[in-house]
Amino acid sequence: QSALTQPASVSGSPGQSITISCTGTSSDVGGYNYVSWYQQHPGKAPKLMIYDVSNRPSGVSNRFSGSKSGNTASLTISGLQAEDEADYYCSSYTSSSTLSPYVFGTGTKVTVL
Amino acid sequence: QVQLQESGPGLVKPSQTLSLTCTVSGGSISSGSYYWSWIRQPAGKGLEWIGRIYTSGSTNYNPSLKSRVTISVDTSKNQFSLKLSSVTAADTAVYYCATEMATTYYFDYWGQGTLVTVSS
Predict the structure, then answer these.
(1) Of A1, A34, B66, B99, which is least surrounded by CB within 10 A?
(2) pLDDT reported for residue B102
(3) Is there a contact between A104 and B107 if contact means CB atoms under 8 Å apart?
(4) Neighbour-count burial of A15, counting CB atoms closer than 10 A to its CB (0-12 exposed, 13-18 middle, 19+ buried)
(5) A window 35-94, beta carbon within 8 A of B
(6) pLDDT tens per residue, range B39-59
(7) What are the DSSP calls for A4-64, one per residue?
(8) Are A20 and A7 in contact (CB under 8 A)?
(9) What is the largest CA-CA distance in chain A?
(10) Cβ distance A1 to A101 under 8 Å?
């Protein structure tokens, strides 16, 4: 199956809000509420930030929020901080393959100006 | 809290088999309903799901790698393992082990990752 499409980069100034999109198809993002988002700092493992489209795990700042419309999911970071500078990946359950239930996004580099 | 730690050779020769182990601590690999997954990331690139094994031993593999991948579990050591055969330079990546609860579709715990380079 094809990777979900994310913008290569998004930037913003401290305190601003930014939104990262994640576009798939009706077989993945659009068909199920199983979109998750991961933050990855250089040299580190990914960290779960959002699951099931809009739920935050315990300990994740409420500055991070998720939503979905049609085949596109979005991650919004409000009150942007220097520590938010990282790569972000979306992931979704997919029914396009009976063997592989997951598809990841292409990744977005967030830069804090 | 579950913790995962990958281990294995950092250098593998082309055409050989890559073997990695993930040691689970903070919980039993055989208790509860969990999937134990392998995910990789080539340098500067995105994440690729390789496959997973369920607590019962059943497996799912990425179709693009299925013919070369085997994931197994050793409950006595609280470990699960990845074997990837006939490797090429394209298999050079950081390999992560991760876990997800059954009936969920997200990875809540990850290992720190281990770099495997395929080179002669």
Answers:
(1) B66
(2) 83
(3) no
(4) exposed
(5) 36, 38, 44-48, 51-52, 57, 89, 91-93
(6) 999 999 999 999 999 988 899
(7) BB--SEEEE-TT--EEEEEE--TTTTTT-S-EEEEEE-TTS--EEEEBTTTBPPTTS-TTE
(8) yes
(9) 43
(10) no
From B45, B49, B108, residue closest to A100, measured CB to CB: B49
The tens digit of pLDDT for each residue in A33-90 reads 999 999 999 999 999 999 999 999 999 999 999 999 999 999 999 999 999 999 999 9
**Quick check: A100 and B60 CB within 8 A?**
yes
B111, A45: Cβ pair inside 8 Å? Answer: yes
Under DSSP, the state recorded for B15 is: T
- The lowest-confidence range among A31-35, A40-44, B30-34, B89-93 is B30-34
Instruction: Tell me the C-alpha distance between B93 and B88, whole Å.
Output: 11
